[in-house]
Amino acid sequence: MENCIFCKIIAGEIPSSKVYEDDQVMAFLDISQTTKGHTLLVPKEHVRNVLEMSEATASTLFARLPKLARALKTATGAPAMNIINNNEEIAGQTVFHAHVHLVPRYQENDGIKIEYTTHEPDFDALGKLAEQISKEVDA
Q1: Where is this motif: Histidine triad motif (predicted)?
Q2: Out of 4, 10, 27, 50, which could bridge 41 as a Cys pair, Cβ 3.0 to 4.6 Å?
Q3: What is the pTM for the complete model shown?
Q4: Is residue 139 part of a domain?
Q5: Total domain count, the chain
């Protein structure tokens, strides 16, 4: 896609700090460096996000993830890591070419917040929602 910054990085039109590349995926350091080593893993095929990704592309992309995460952890010495994928603007996606963030974490209370709220579950509602989702998976 002509205006996609990640497509331009993949094509070599924009410089990047590449950490991995094969015929189908590329990984490079995020210019924001939320933490030291913050890396993006992208498919070379332009696809908006996981919601529009084929099973083949997803299989290829996510198959590379463990090897890349282990290499990043070893190279940085980070004891932990967040692996994050945002899909659409409301969820925080700002570049509309599928990508996975690997964010090394070095210490607790580092100012990075990823929070989930908890409350007493409504098991009946959860069961109904699970049934609805299952029907869509099988559709």
Answers
A1: 97-101
A2: 27
A3: 0.91
A4: no
A5: 1
pLDDT one-digit tens code per residue, 8-18: 999 999 999 99
pLDDT tens by residue, 58-75 = 999 999 999 999 999 999
Separation CA 37–CA 83 (nearest Å):
12
Task: Say which of 38, 97, 99, 101 is annotated catalytic.
Answer: 99
56 and 24 in contact (C-beta within 8 Å)? no
The domain of 78 spans 5-113
Q: What is the token pair recorded at 58?
A: 């997803």
In-domain check, residue 41: yes
> Residue 118 pLDDT more than 90?
no
Tell me if residue 105 falls in helix, strand or coil.
strand
The answer to the question of residue 118 being in a domain is: no
Closest CA to 23 of 71, 65, 61, 53: 61
Question: Could you tell me the CATH number of the domain that includes residue 92?
Answer: 3.30.428.10
Longest alpha-carbon distance in the chain = 53
